[in-house]
Amino acid sequence: MLMGFGLIFSLIFGAVAGSFLNVCIDRIPRGQSVVYPPSHCPACERRLSPAELVPVASFLRQQGRCKECGEQIAPWYPVVEGATGIVFALLYWWYGFGATWIATVVLAGFLIVISGIDLQHRIIPNRVLLAALPLVAVWRGWQAAMGGNPGQVGADLLLGALFGGGLLYVLHVGSRGGLGLGDVKFAFVFGALLGWPAVVYALTLAGLAGTIFGIGGILCGELTRKSEIPFGPFLAFGVLTAFLAVQSSGGGTCLV
Question: Do 134 and 253 share a structural domain?
């Protein structure tokens, strides 16, 4: 019964968090505050009522349109909300509530925002990466405080950051900008989170996923060899998968 309650809570909490992530995806690339003004219709600028802010359900009830001006709402809004809810619930099912669950859902939130922005704007904003840095430091400090060797944790952090950022910088230079500097900075920040050798696994998975997607797109006629494919979502996939693998092998603190 407790597990069922936890799953439902995680699902709802994740969907609500996904609504906020949508705001971040929409506003951060435009340099706007994610707090003010409150949520509003981008077409008529009318402030949304509480009934219009219910994740997924509001979109379905309004048939994907603003109830005031009839402007179509982008379908990625409910997709992000639903996907975030499912991810949070799955992470609870795997870890239970605790430090590892909190760290993983925060990481997932950052990766969803980065993926959404990169897919829509082909950028990974410094603003998001700078916000992630202190959280990476907090998690690494927690690891050291829970019995890890501080010197070893620090060296692991540094090696992960330098390898991740350094390798992608070489690829950035070699591709003559085909791989953006945003991807380089992404690999530096989250390489610090993963450390060595998990950063290697993350980058390998990202490269494989991107390659499979590209080849599949070409075979289906949706892409060409010259098509620009944002690499951020694949990096996000690699980082989250590697982080989950590390936590599953090393264990985490479960409170419920």
Answer: yes
